[in-house]
Specification:
Blueprint lengths: L2 E3 L6 H8 L5 E7 L1 E6 L5 E5 L5 E7 L4 H11 L3 E9 L5 E9 L7 E5 L2 H7 L1 H7 L6
C-alpha cells in the first residue's frame, strides 16, 4: 500500500517509532491539497484547497497491513484516510492513501501553512517524547 505523508510521519525517526518498519520516503506533491497548522498541536493536517494549491510530502510505498493498523491508530479520530493522487518529481503520478482532517475536526485548522523545519527545530524532541507508537 502507498501512503502520502506530509507532517510528522515525514521524519524517519517518527515513522519508524510508529510504523515499526522502514519504508523510505520519496518526494511527492498533492495538487488541490494544503498542509495546514492545527490549533493547539505541533503537527499538521491535510485539507482540500484550490486545485493550484500544492501539498509537499513523501510517498512511502509497500506499507504492510500491520504497519497501516499502527498508523491508523496513531492518527486517531481527527483524521480520515482517503485515496488521493500524488505527483513525483519526474511528473509521474501514483495513487496513495493520506490522512486528511475529518469534517468534525475542521474547526482546528488554522490559516497558516505548517512548517516542517520549524517542527524539527522546536517540537520534534517533545513530540517523540510523547509518542510511544502504542495505540491509544
Amino acid at each position: 500500500m502507498n501512503l502520502f505523508v506530509y507532517g510528522s510521519l515525514m521524519f524517519d525517526v517518527v515513522w519508524q517509532r510508529i510504523a515499526r518498519t522502514s519504508n523510505p520516503g520519496l518526494p511527492a506533491t498533492a495538487h488541490g491539497w494544503s498542509v495546514r497548522s492545527l490549533q493547539g498541536v505541533s503537527y499538521p493536517g491535510l485539507v482540500p484547497a484550490p486545485h493550484d494549491s500544492l501539498a509537499s510530502g513523501l510517498l512511502r510505498t509497500n506499507v504492510s497491513p500491520i504497519a497501516l493498523a499502527r498508523l491508523d491508530a496513531f492518527e486517531g479520530h481527527d483524521y480520515l484516510r482517503q485515496l488521493i493522487t500524488v505527483t513525483m518529481p519526474d511528473r509521474t503520478t501514483s495513487s496513495a492513501w493520506a490522512w486528511i482532517v475529518s469534517p468534525a475536526a475542521m474547526h482546528l485548522v488554522l490559516p497558516d501553512p505548517w512548517d516542517a523545519d520549524l517542527f524539527a527545530r522546536d517540537s520534534l524532541t517533545d513530540f517523540l517524547r510523547n509518542s510511544t507508537g502504542d495505540p491509544p
